[in-house]
Amino acid sequence: MKKKDLISITDYTRNDYLRIMELAAEFEKNPNQNLLEGKVVASLFFEPSTRTRLSFETAISRLGGRIVGFSDSSSSSVTKGETLHDTIRMVSNYVDLIVMRHPIEGSARYASEVSKVPVINAGDGANQHPTQTLLDMYSIIKTQGRLDNLKIYMVGDLKYGRTVHSLIMALSEFEGQEFHFIAPPELAMPREYTQFLKEKNIPCYEYTDFTPEVIADADILYMTRVQKERFSDPIEYEKVKNVYILKNEMLKLTKDSLRILHPLPRVNEICTDVDSNPKAYYFTQALNGMYTREAIIAHTLGLK
Ligand code: CP
Prior knowledge:
The chain has helices at about 15-30, 50-60, 85-95, 105-115, 130-145, 160-170, 190-200, 210-215, 235-240, 280-300; strands at about 40-45, 65-70, 95-100, 120-125, 150-155, 180, 205, 220-225, 260.
């Protein structure tokens, strides 16, 4: 049987998305299930992470599996010059599944081509973060009751923010969407994504002003951090690092049903006075990540 990697969100069909939503809801009701008994999962993080790594490792533990790997590649033989090819070829001899984050775009696809066992992309550079997208979708369906007919406002670093790229691709599989992109010109949504939406006849609007009036009609306000680590010139980062800051008073015109998402970590783009607003959903969103990653693992290994 062909192994089922998750490298790009487009590796999954609309039916896969819906199946993951269903499984995540099951795992939320009953997170501890011994489906991974006797199985070993490699958790290879070549780039820092808090939520993705810990929610994956918690998901594996709750499913009764064992974890090997590293959270800092400086403790691996990469420091001696070992290539990604050789690292993955070796590790895939030991384990049943590989979860990998790497700073280079395309590295996860390359790893999947070398690996004997399925690979799940936990983020490759500014390219894709498909498991974040699935947990975002689970957060949307839980809070809005649907994945279609949504007005989605994305704010901040839409150039380097890989989570927004994957989310656009996935949500475009559902009818009636309207996308609104709020970013400074330096961090605007890359043309390939606006062009993709245009070709699918999905409306998208671009703004540089981040005001209460602009966001008044949103169902989902998806805030992002300016991705400091992706800038080659620190002066360019300094120019845009404080570009948009969401304050509680800016939410007065928004719908009661609005929910604010953020993949986290946050730096300063959401003031802490927003945290106690019932529309703030980002910490629960991160919790949803654990159930969603249990669902992804079970789906990848055909355990459900
Ligand atoms: N959302 C996300 O990917 O967070 P981490 O970088 O902490 O894993």
